[in-house]
Amino acid sequence: MLSERLQSELNEQIKHELFSAYYYLAMAAYLDNEGLEGFANFFKVQAEEEKFHAMKIYNFINEKGGRVLFQAIEQPENQFESIIDTFKKSLEHEQFVTKRIYYLMELAIEEKEHATISFLNWFVDEQVEEENLMETHIQKLARVGEEGPGIIMLDTELAQRTFVPPAEGEA
Ligand code: MG
Fold first, then answer.
1. What confidence tier does 56 reach under pLDDT thresholds 50, 70, 90?
2. pLDDT (tens digit, 9 = 90+) per residue, 140-160?
3. Residues 111/104, Cβ–Cβ less than 8 Å
4. Could you tell me the fold of the domain covering 4-159?
């Protein structure tokens, strides 16, 4: 059984994860428009991951006998300055999501809600990967610059990315 407060904050987190998907799709659309299909693919796959995060919380709330209630998702920013700008904004956004996960964890600890603590641990680890992923791309992009052969190589590399849902047990 989840407390009202935890249930409500977990529902709010579903919104943040779905907003993340929406935001990454806005970045994909910008990059597709720039003719960068590989970079766009990176963000489309990222959006799939975010939907997976949202559904993971959805399933957890249900397993705990709670009620999933959807909230309004705000309009994401649609305009970006450059390729590196999309990754910098992604990193900022993931840092915000990490803070949200830590906040949820603090509530769960306060309530001694061990099942939720265990569940949230997966997200704590996931956020380390998400932030690192964005940081790595910011570094690579800073090296190669926005124009030139390096960008084409990165675009080709990122076109290969596919969404692989984590296996049950791992997840
Ligand atoms: Mg997420």
1. very high
2. 999 999 988 999 999 999 999
3. no
4. Ferritin (1.20.1260)
The answer to whether 32 and 16 are in contact (CB under 8 A) is no
Q: What is the pLDDT of residue 165?
A: 87
CA of 59 to the centre of ligand 1 (A): 15
pTM of the model: 0.95
Residues with CB in 5 Å of ion ligand 1: 17, 50, 53
C-alpha 47 to ligand 1 mean position (Å): 9
**Residues 6 or more apart from 138 whose CB is under 8 A from it?**
84, 87, 88, 91
